[in-house]
Amino acid sequence: MKKSLFSYRCHHIRMPKKELFDPLHHCFIGESSRNPSFPRNTQKTSVFAYLKLLASVIWVEVNTFYSLYFIILGLLEFIPEVSTANAWMTLLPLLFVFILEYLVQAFDLFSVQKSIRSDDKRKYVVTRDHKTKPVASKNIKPGDLIEISDQSTVPCDCILLSTDQMSVFINTSKIDGETDVKDRVPLKFPNNFTNGFIKTLNGSVTATGAQSSSRQVEGEVIFSPNSGFDFDISDRTDTDSQSDPDYKISNNDEKKVGFHQNVDGSITSIFDNNSFIERGSLIETSGTHLLLALYTGKHCRSDAAISPTATRKTMIDNYLEKISMFIFVFQLIISIILGTLGYLSLQNDDHSYIPSVLLHEDLKMWMLLIVIVRNFLMLSFMVPITLKLLLPIFRFIYGMFISNDLNFVDTDTGNVAEALSTNMTENLGALDVIISDKTGTLTKNKLTLISLIAGNEKYGDSRKAPTILEDQVLHDNFKSVTEEDFILTFQALAVCHTIKISSDQQFHGSSADELAILTALQKLGWKFYEDRDLRRYESPLGNYDLRVLKVNTFNRKRMRMSVVVAIGNDIFCFMKGAPERILRQCSSRTGELASNYEDFQLRGLRTMSISYKRLDKYDEYMEIEEMESGHRLLGTMGIEDALQNDVQLTLDLLSDAGLKIWVATGDAKTNTLVVSAMLHLLRANEQVVHIDTQHLLDEASLETGTFENPLFSTKAMMVAENSFSTVINAEDDKVLRIALEKKKFLNALYRSRCVIYYRCKPSTKADIAIALQNNGKRVLGIGDGYNDSLLLRASDVGVGIKAPDGSKAFATCDFAIPAFRSLGRLILIHGHQALHRSVLAVHFSFYKAVLFAMCQTIYQVWTSYSGQSLFDEFALFCFNNVWTLLPILSLLFEKDVGENFLYRLSYLYKKLRNPLTLRPSNITWFIVAVYQGAIIMLISWALTGEGYFNSSGKDFGASYLSLVLYFSMVLICAFYMLYQTNTFTYYSMVLIFGNILMLVASSALFQSGQVFGQGDAWIGFYGECFNNINTLIIIVTIVLAAVSPSWIGLSVWSEYQNSDSLRVIETETNAAKNDQPLFFDPPKNN
């Protein structure tokens, strides 16, 4: 069933309902008795969380054919008439699988809740009903006022009412793993609304509905005094006063954030996400801050956005389901044949080993069913339950291989890779598309101010002066130029930002652009001093003081920010933002060159323009539009975001491996195209198709276009695949989402060598991944920030780029790597080998089970098809779980080709990978098992005759012969694994042949009758086997007859299937001896 683009990862994320239908959230301040019942402010630490997790694990496991198969078998074994073994021998291993799966996830849940419990007990200074006292976090309610200070954790979702600073920095790494701090501004109130005064007031809050999984929060706070405020304020409204109970909060991004006085004298303040602080955030600004508790408990946004879920199924899990169904059908057919033959045999013969109740004349059809079921149960081990135990162990070890791989160590930061979801490693080996963010993923997100155009003068970005720091002309102008525009340019750069600057000149903020600008100014000689809204700057242009009157923060719709400051007797509004948006607001400029930002963009630089307006008067109720119109353009900056080390080599490597590279970024078109060209994602010798919003509308419609002007989805099918690249404007996410649902359009896009999306929203990135998955493609998403988290959740594999300090970019990735260059090794080496090993483990497990079952099946000829077993229960249990277990573990060291080949010949990634379908190359193990099972029984009968069997169905020598066959099968399985092994290591040899030695040693113990009570079956076998030449001849003959023909046949088939790859590998082996260094290898010393 396809996943809807409107509700992706529904089992991981509770998607928001339409905001129109969300009930609003209301609470009262100072009158807690009027509040309705709200959830207790705890974080799901009860035992019900574990019970819910248990139910989730059981539900996921039971909804697989593999588990249902063993549950049904176990229940059938409880019926005495059909039972062939102890039911608990089937059910206990399955139960152990469930317990193991649950314990792994319960441990993760316990680790999280351990820290949560301590948070719930932490006490805060809370004012409720005008009384202030310490209150434990779990007892905080909506409407409470919370006083909080530096380095404190916010106990619930809150609104920042007031602070003794301009704004407050918060760290949300505990919530989303994002390491960059975020800035939050207090609500707007009259100047005399101090913390103490607010605590004496009554009020109410109306906000976005609780339990909405949208992270957008907005609303209003109304404060009402008991006897009217002792100040007068004109009825200045940014939003009309609302008294209608049906009032709904607007979703308009242009809403005004401020306050106004209503007719009744109350004060209303409007808030949005810029004042909202989620539970678990860490306050990183010194001072005293007053917060208003808005949502508690399960209503908190961090609690509603993500729900716990059982482990995702991997591609190997799905492949295991296919093989299990295939074997089930084969087992059922064999059981029906044996049961029918057994039923016919019972019509005339007297078989004392058949229960007498089955021979009743009136129960003949029931007897037929019983015999069929007995044979079905006798062959039940054709589906090996040990795989459900082995695969988690394999995946855990795969994760250890990744985490301990020293080749991942980043030389710049010392960071290493981490496997956070080890069960996803196999998915790395079967990818089709990589969807990558650009900024911080393909680039370093370490910005540097390269050039500045002020007036008609350009500084930096020249051969003599690569950056403005080396530009001597600029340093000279600092000493001589007195023009107001030049001075205002640098004053604007110094103040138009949201960065916090400590007394030791350290910068704290989340905007990489602003950090780059201030870092450049600091290196040019600026020193910054802040005291709330007062600023003092020491600079090469002189020292000056100013006062910040208002900050209009940046948002994506305006694409700009502005700051109103008082410098002496003058008041200025400085504005900074995207050049296109700034130029619209300017009526004059300091020079023609100042608006020439296209040159910067064509060089791949990020661009920002800055402007100013002298205000004749200012009051805090002035409209933003009035402040930001009629500006004078001061200049434009070019900021470099350097590419990641070896990013181009990595992209070329992955592209050569047959993977499609798609880039989804929120950046502007020109910058995106230039960076893509620098990375060779767009090439000069190929056609680049640009799809804008109108083209997407055409694709989203049902029309196919005219013959003269066919749609892209039609034209793309007429040219060769990978002969063009596609660039898409993703600004209208709704239209793009509809277009991506059209299979024809998506197939056309997939024919592109590369697809670049610009102006992407975070949700759009996830829509792209889901559309590809619905079309049968396997997707890897990679990003570096919280805005990429939706993409990572939606992808088959999510990879996060670590921050320089080693912390993960966010908490939703399956793997964390130090840099993009590590992605090549993660996919080509670890992903390919993990998939190869797991496929071999699955094949070998089913091979030995079918081999064993074939011996049981043919044995039925001598038991009149009665469903009797040639081997006892102990032998049945130990064959899969003990004597053939160690050879499987040797696969952990298996490599089909060396790492160097996968780097040098990356196209082998797709050519050699298993398609995970039931095609002939994937069932050779089945054919070999059927052949070897038949030849084992044929050779044993030919060499022993009727001495061990009696056609009447009563076995005389079967117990002894069963041990001979048992020992022979263990040897044959070891030789089969030896053939499957391409890489012979000390460990693999010890595991394969050590398993045989362990069987020999154990047989000596078993014959004494003191170990597990196995004396009856094993007495005399050890001595007879190794002292009797006839027994040894039987074993050797059986092994050679079973192994030799199958080994020859497999070799011929492998040569036929992989002749091209084998020939290339052989050629490269000879050429690599004196060839150039391999990818990422250190250069050879001359």
Automatic annotation (TrEMBL):
<keyword id="KW-1278">Translocase</keyword>
<dbReference type="InterPro" id="IPR032630">
    <property type="entry name" value="P_typ_ATPase_c"/>
</dbReference>
<dbReference type="InterPro" id="IPR023299">
    <property type="entry name" value="ATPase_P-typ_cyto_dom_N"/>
</dbReference>
<dbReference type="GO" id="GO:0140326">
    <property type="term" value="F:ATPase-coupled intramembrane lipid transporter activity"/>
</dbReference>
<keyword id="KW-0067">ATP-binding</keyword>
<dbReference type="Pfam" id="PF16212">
    <property type="entry name" value="PhoLip_ATPase_C"/>
</dbReference>
<feature type="binding site">
    <location>
        <position position="514"/>
    </location>
    <ligand>
        <name>ATP</name>
    </ligand>
</feature>
<feature type="binding site">
    <location>
        <position position="788"/>
    </location>
    <ligand>
        <name>ATP</name>
    </ligand>
</feature>
<feature type="region of interest" description="Disordered">
    <location>
        <begin position="230"/>
        <end position="251"/>
    </location>
</feature>
<feature type="transmembrane region" description="Helical">
    <location>
        <begin position="956"/>
        <end position="979"/>
    </location>
</feature>
<dbReference type="InterPro" id="IPR023214">
    <property type="entry name" value="HAD_sf"/>
</dbReference>
<dbReference type="GO" id="GO:0016887">
    <property type="term" value="F:ATP hydrolysis activity"/>
</dbReference>
<feature type="binding site">
    <location>
        <position position="437"/>
    </location>
    <ligand>
        <name>Mg(2+)</name>
    </ligand>
</feature>
<feature type="binding site">
    <location>
        <position position="606"/>
    </location>
    <ligand>
        <name>ATP</name>
    </ligand>
</feature>
<dbReference type="GO" id="GO:0005524">
    <property type="term" value="F:ATP binding"/>
</dbReference>
<feature type="binding site">
    <location>
        <position position="438"/>
    </location>
    <ligand>
        <name>ATP</name>
    </ligand>
</feature>
<feature type="binding site">
    <location>
        <position position="667"/>
    </location>
    <ligand>
        <name>ATP</name>
    </ligand>
</feature>
<dbReference type="GO" id="GO:0000287">
    <property type="term" value="F:magnesium ion binding"/>
</dbReference>
<feature type="transmembrane region" description="Helical">
    <location>
        <begin position="323"/>
        <end position="346"/>
    </location>
</feature>
<dbReference type="InterPro" id="IPR001757">
    <property type="entry name" value="P_typ_ATPase"/>
</dbReference>
<dbReference type="InterPro" id="IPR036412">
    <property type="entry name" value="HAD-like_sf"/>
</dbReference>
<protein>
    <recommendedName>
        <fullName>Phospholipid-transporting ATPase</fullName>
        <ecNumber>7.6.2.1</ecNumber>
    </recommendedName>
</protein>
<dbReference type="InterPro" id="IPR006539">
    <property type="entry name" value="P-type_ATPase_IV"/>
</dbReference>
<feature type="transmembrane region" description="Helical">
    <location>
        <begin position="839"/>
        <end position="862"/>
    </location>
</feature>
<feature type="active site" description="4-aspartylphosphate intermediate">
    <location>
        <position position="437"/>
    </location>
</feature>
<feature type="binding site">
    <location>
        <position position="666"/>
    </location>
    <ligand>
        <name>ATP</name>
    </ligand>
</feature>
<dbReference type="GO" id="GO:0045332">
    <property type="term" value="P:phospholipid translocation"/>
</dbReference>
<keyword id="KW-1133">Transmembrane helix</keyword>
<feature type="transmembrane region" description="Helical">
    <location>
        <begin position="1029"/>
        <end position="1053"/>
    </location>
</feature>
<feature type="compositionally biased region" description="Basic and acidic residues">
    <location>
        <begin position="233"/>
        <end position="251"/>
    </location>
</feature>
<keyword id="KW-0472">Membrane</keyword>
<feature type="transmembrane region" description="Helical">
    <location>
        <begin position="874"/>
        <end position="893"/>
    </location>
</feature>
<dbReference type="InterPro" id="IPR018303">
    <property type="entry name" value="ATPase_P-typ_P_site"/>
</dbReference>
<feature type="binding site">
    <location>
        <position position="554"/>
    </location>
    <ligand>
        <name>ATP</name>
    </ligand>
</feature>
<feature type="transmembrane region" description="Helical">
    <location>
        <begin position="53"/>
        <end position="76"/>
    </location>
</feature>
<dbReference type="Pfam" id="PF00122">
    <property type="entry name" value="E1-E2_ATPase"/>
</dbReference>
<dbReference type="InterPro" id="IPR023298">
    <property type="entry name" value="ATPase_P-typ_TM_dom_sf"/>
</dbReference>
<feature type="binding site">
    <location>
        <position position="437"/>
    </location>
    <ligand>
        <name>ATP</name>
    </ligand>
</feature>
<feature type="binding site">
    <location>
        <position position="576"/>
    </location>
    <ligand>
        <name>ATP</name>
    </ligand>
</feature>
<dbReference type="GO" id="GO:0005886">
    <property type="term" value="C:plasma membrane"/>
</dbReference>
<feature type="binding site">
    <location>
        <position position="439"/>
    </location>
    <ligand>
        <name>ATP</name>
    </ligand>
</feature>
<comment type="similarity">
    <text>Belongs to the cation transport ATPase (P-type) (TC 3.A.3) family. Type IV subfamily.</text>
</comment>
